[in-house]
Design goal:
Elements: H1 9-31, E1 36-42, H2 46-61, E2 65-71, H3 77-88, E3 95-98, H4 108-112, H5 126-131
Parallel strand pairs: 1-2, 1-3
């Protein structure tokens, strides 16, 4: 039986962020590409706002473009899905993160399934799960 290795979470995450920043810098230098992450927040959940704020900051610290989209709590299902569809078709967007939970009355699974599998950062779509 193999002995477990203890991982220091803060150290590991810091090293990982540095590694990602290095890859982003390489993409920019060698190919003129700056990856873009679109974050979609619907409503005003305080915990979600903190999470999104941290993701925006970390994305920018890694040298990527952060594209933050905040829809009001009363946004309709069609508005959420239309935004996701627009982001799917935007060549400046390499990844989409839909912040969950969505406000009551919105169908999370339906919104998730609108995210193109190639841009599904969290791996939540059925196609993304199948790829795992």
């Amino acid at each position: 039986m193999t002995e477990a290795t203890r991982i220091e979470g803060k150290v590991f995450s810091s090293q990982l962020r540095e590694k990602v920043a290095g890859h982003v810098a390489w993409l920019q230098q060698e190919h003129g590409i700056t990856p873009g992450l679109a974050v979609v927040l619907v409503g005003d959940d305080p915990a979600s706002e903190v999470y999104v704020r941290n993701k925006v900051r970390q994305t920018e610290e890694a040298g990527m473009r952060s594209l933050h989209h905040h829809l009001p709590v009363d946004a309709s299902q069609n508005e959420v899905e239309a935004l996701i569809s627009r982001l799917n078709g935007d060549d400046e967007v390499d990844g989409i993160l839909l912040q969950l939970p969505l406000p009551k009355g919105l169908d999370e699974q339906r919104a998730i399934e609108c995210i193109a599998p190639a841009k599904d950062v969290d791996g939540l779509t059925e196609a993304s799960a199948g790829r795992l």
